[in-house]
């Protein structure tokens, strides 16, 4: 695989197709939740639990890179709730009046990790080891549109190896794609969240837990103009509740207050 930039336009088109697929048959009793890719497993479980407590509501989940989802909503794609993997994407959503800022809440925390294929013969002990000739390709999300990429860039810059490592980059359209690249051995190392690495323990191994320049926290908010504002607020409340937090903990997420 060549080092490559994956254009934001392509990511937007992919997310747009996914959003249309999710929303094409939406009914009045269906709640559309657009959430960061790293939340996929946890939010599927939360959605099922919420539906059990609210028999009249069907939760439709749309996952992708936070910035891409936000831009799709800004362009008019239906959504009721937006959950981001970093504060910057939510800040943009507030600036563009995509969400109601009064409903914004942090609901989870995570950690940045560096992973390698499970059968890798070289395991980096520091970020500087990524400059080694043993590491030819490094995957992470595009910093222009993917939170994991921004966290990785900040960490690499702090370690003084951004220029060297970015020259080896294979940019992913979201964190799960970065995980897939590593799990298939298509790259020598990659950056993901700790919760992502945990879903493939037999295919990837964590080389490092990486300190980040900003805490890895997840905000959630009501989408402006939602036609299901009451249900959307109830869903957000559920995510923040003891039951919702227990589901997140099951999938490895920490409480928002636990972020460093």
How would you describe this structure in keywords?
single chain, 260 residues, alpha/beta, D-Maltodextrin-Binding Protein, domain 2, 2 domains, 5-stranded mixed beta sheet, elongated, disordered N terminus, molybdenum, ModA/WtpA
Describe the overall structure:
- The structure is a single chain.
- The protein is an alpha/beta fold.
- Helices cover 38% and strands 21% of the residues.
- The strands form 2 sheets. The protein has a 5-stranded mixed sheet, sandwiched between helices. It has a 5-stranded mixed sheet with strand order 7-6-8-5-9, with helices on both faces.
- α2 packs antiparallel against α10 and α3 packs parallel to α4.
- The N terminus is likely disordered.
- One of its GO terms (molecular function) is molybdate ion binding.
- Belongs to the bacterial solute-binding protein ModA family.
Spatial strand arrangement across the major sheet: 2-1-3-10-4
Any idea of the CATH class of the largest domain? Answer: Alpha Beta
Shape: elongated
Number of helices: 10
CATH topology-level fold name of the largest domain:
D-Maltodextrin-Binding Protein, domain 2
Estimate percent helicity.
25-40%
Flag low-confidence runs. 1-8, 14-26
Mean pLDDT: 91
Family: Belongs to the bacterial solute-binding protein ModA family.
Keywords: Metal-binding, Molybdenum, Signal
Organism: Paraburkholderia guartelaensis
Binding site for molybdate: 38, 66, 175
Task: Provide a compact summary of the structure.
By secondary structure, the protein is of the alpha/beta class. It is 38% helix and 21% strand.
């Amino acid at each position: 695989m060549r080092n490559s930039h994956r254009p934001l336009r392509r990511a937007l088109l992919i997310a747009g197709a996914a959003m249309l697929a999710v929303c094409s048959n939406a009914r009045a009793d269906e709640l559309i939740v657009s959430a960061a890719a790293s939340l996929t497993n946890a939010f599927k479980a939360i959605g099922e639990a919420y539906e059990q407590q609210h028999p009249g509501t069907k939760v439709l989940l749309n996952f992708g890179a936070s910035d891409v989802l936000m831009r799709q909503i800004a362009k008019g794609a239906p959504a009721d709730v937006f959950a981001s993997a970093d504060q910057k994407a939510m800040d943009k959503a507030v600036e563009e009046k995509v969400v109601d800022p009064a409903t914004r809440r942090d609901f989870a925390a995570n950690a940045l990790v560096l992973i390698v294929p499970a059968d890798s013969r070289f395991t980096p002990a520091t970020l500087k080891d990524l400059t080694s000739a043993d590491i030819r390709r490094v995957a992470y999300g595009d910093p222009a549109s993917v939170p994991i990429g921004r966290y990785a860039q900040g960490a690499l810059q702090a370690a003084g190896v951004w220029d060297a490592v970015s020259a080896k980059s294979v940019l992913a359209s979201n964190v799960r794609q970065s995980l897939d690249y590593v799990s298939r051995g298509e790259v020598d190392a990659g950056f993901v969240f700790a919760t992502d690495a945990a879903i493939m323990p037999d295919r990837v191994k964590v080389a490092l837990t990486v300190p980040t320049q900003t805490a890895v926290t997840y905000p959630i908010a009501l989408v402006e103009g939602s036609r299901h504002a009451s249900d959307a607020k109830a869903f957000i409340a559920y995510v923040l509740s003891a039951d919702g937090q227990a589901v997140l903990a099951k999938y490895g997420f920490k409480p928002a207050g636990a972020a460093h």
